[in-house]
Amino acid sequence: MKIGVIGTGYVGLVTGTCLAELGHEVICVDALPRKIELLNNGGCPIYEPGLSDLIRKQRQAGRLTFSTDIGGMAPDRDAIFIAVGTPPRPDGEADLSFLRAAVSDLAPHLAGFTAVVTKSTVPVGTGDGIEAQLAEQRPDADVAVVSNPEFLREGSAIGDFMKPDRIVVGTDDLRARELMQQIYAPLTDAGAPLVMTDRRTSELIKYAANAFLAVKISYINEIADLCEELGADAVRVAEGMGLDPRIGRRFLDPGPGFGGSCFPKDTDALLSTGRAAGVPLRVVTAASEANRDRKRLLAARVAAVAGDLAGQTVAVLGLTFKAGTDDMREAASLELIPELQRRGATVRAFDPKGMEAARDLLPGIVLCRDAYDAAKGATAVVVLTEWPAFRTLDLQRLAGVVGIPLLIDMRNLFDPDEVSRAGFDYVSIGRPAAAARDRSPAVRLGAARSTSAAA
Ligand SMILES: NC(=O)c1ccc[n+]([C@@H]2O[C@H](COP(=O)([O-])OP(=O)(O)OC[C@H]3O[C@@H](n4cnc5c(N)ncnc54)[C@H](O)[C@@H]3O)[C@@H](O)[C@H]2O)c1
Known about the structure:
This protein is of the alpha/beta class. The protein has helices at 10-21, 33-40, 51-60, 70-73, 97-106, 126-137, 157-162, 174-183, 185-189, 199-230, 234-242, 263-277, 282-296, 298-306, 333-342, 355-361, 371-374, 388-391, 395-401, 416-421, 445-454, and strands at 2-6, 25-29, 64-67, 79-82, 114-118, 143-147, 167-170, 194-197, 313-317, 346-350, 366-367, 380-383, 406-409, 425-427.
């Protein structure tokens, strides 16, 4: 099949590259010439494990090319996937201006039957809007507008695309159904379930799934708060809950609150859809509010255990919204660090992949060579992202460089006994705090949370 992809971000670039890996002939276009130039020079604009190698392989095989010229790409394509951003507007609604611009750029160049496939996450009814826009711009065009939401996760995007839990396709057009079946045949032949449905249902599946996961995270975070008050261990609670197959263990890791380019914006967009439809989505509203509060109060949590932060140094390990990506969108660090600075702290930070983005987004932080460098002289070391490399830090070495050995672990990466043996007072999420063997247990995160609730 001849496929076009509009947008070479986290989704478009992975989609285009993986579709080439499935044997299709793919042209990816982007509005940003510097991205296309970088790709054409063998570079990769994002960090995603395995992606650079796969791009190189597919370019060498002649199945993957990059261009800024939508007019050169469109006319002979069987399907054109749109994977541009749909960021949140200030009122929470999805901003569809990039999508509309892409459709507008595409319309004059359509020739022959083409499936215009929305990969971007878009509110219910957006496909109808694209159809209307195309009908107005190109009443003669032979197109089917298809919804095909993407479920890949940054950090494991290639595996997620190549071995999906499910592929969702929404269209009533029989030619488009057949085309989409052919495009995904290598995956469905290998056992991937295909949910073929109407366009509105398909559009809603994506939001309903993301909002559900957001609810799950907010739920375990609140259970973790309760654990801190009651002296229970949230990790074991999650384990005990998660063994029930109706619940499942995944997305039950308490932490600093969900971030990233999807959960916050998709929950807000779903709420906005609910409001417009007159259906109050109370559970999702609560999950979204709980998460916002949690992130807003992160610095207060730190202050509650570390004391007055004025003139102190705080080390932050991990800046990206999760491990495995360089994506900083809605990262907890963007809430925590400015507030630490506002309270007078100097923030020294390290992230394996997020340093470049952080330079612009977090003015005033000291970006450090590694975790040990970041921890130099710190009153508290805060672990914010679950990078595997942090799990294997040499804690003795870390204890040797800090000012005060206090480790605040927002990802529960460490064994409390091990941390206290290394000489740290240890505060994690939803677990009893552990004091260094030779000090009295002065730290208790429950105290942090009640203080932060009042902040
Ligand atoms: N990032 C994820 O993990 C993820 C997962 C599933 C779904 N999604 C959804 O996929 C969509 C894309 O997300 P993303 O993270 O890849 O975004 P992104 O911001 O990383 O990439 C969007 C790309 O589209 C390009 N673009 C914008 N307007 C264009 C136009 N008119 N013509 C050509 N190119 C254009 C931009 O230059 C950019 O390279 C969003 O709707 C998002 O919600 C994202």
